[in-house]
Each structure stands twice: as C-alpha cells, then as structure tokens.
Amino acid sequence: MPTLSPEPLARPREDHGMATPPRKPQDTATVTAAVLSILSALAGAPAGSPAAGAFVSALRRRGEDLAGLGGVEALREARAAAIAADPAHAETRAGLIDSAWATVPGWTA
C-alpha cells in the first residue's frame, strides 16, 4: 500500500485560474477574417443578450489588434471588407463596428 504524503498533490494556481495563454502573432488578414466571423455570429445573437455582449467585446479586441498591427488604415480596410461582405446589412455592420471600436485609439467613424 502506498504511503500518503502530508503535502497536497496539487498546489492552487497563484493567478486563481484567470491567466490567459499568450496569443499567437497574427496578421491583418487573419484579424479581418475574425472580424467577419464575429459579425456573422453577432447577427444571430439576441440583442442585449450575454452572447451579444461577448461578441461586441471580441469585436472591440480585434479592433485593438488591427490598430496595433496596421493602425487606422488596417481598421478602415477591415470595416470596408465587413461592409462589402454583406451589403444588405451594411448599415448595421458599420454601426456595430463604429460602436465597438469607439475606444480604439485613433479610430473615428
């Protein structure tokens, strides 16, 4: 029979489980594709729902990523790509992006 050690088998994480893994480096095309995916998902989420809030937060983070990668020009290109990808919902998409990116440094709608 094995003997039991008085020490715990696992130590609690000092970060309380809240650490995020390091993000992979990305380029503007990859982040723009993520913006398009988020907008598609957001279109199916009920307004005001927790899911919609999470998608808007993700959209803001991708805007921050784009600003860091290519500045305002990358943001403008991603916005134009999002509008061109779904012309029937161009106004809605533009409004969502402008609202989500309102706090991104350098962004003006």
Short description:
Residues 1-29 are annotated as: Disordered. The chain is built from 3 helices and no strands.
Structural class: mainly alpha
Q: Using the CA coordinates, give the radius of gyration.
A: 20 Å
Q: List the helices and strands in order.
A: HHH
Strand content: under 5%
Number of helices: 3
The helix fraction, in percent, is 55-70%
Uncertain residue ranges: none
Number of strands: 0
Net shape: globular
- How far apart the termini lie comes to 70 Å
Let me know the average pLDDT: 86
**Quaternary structure classification:** single chain
Main sheet specs? none
SSE layout and pairing:
Blueprint: H1 28-43, H2 50-85, H3 90-100
Helix pairs in contact: 1-2, 2-3
Protein described:
Residues 1-29 are annotated as: Disordered. 58% of the residues lie in helices and 0% in strands. With 109 residues, the chain is mainly alpha-helical. The chain has a domain at 28-100. Helix 1 packs across helix 2 and helix 2 (50-85) packs across helix 3 (90-100). It is globular and about 40 Å long. The protein starts with 27 loop residues before the first helix and ends in a 9-residue tail after the last helix. The relative contact order is 0.14. The model has no long low-confidence stretch (mean pLDDT 86).
Please name the defining characteristics of this protein.
mainly alpha, globular, 109 residues, 3 helices
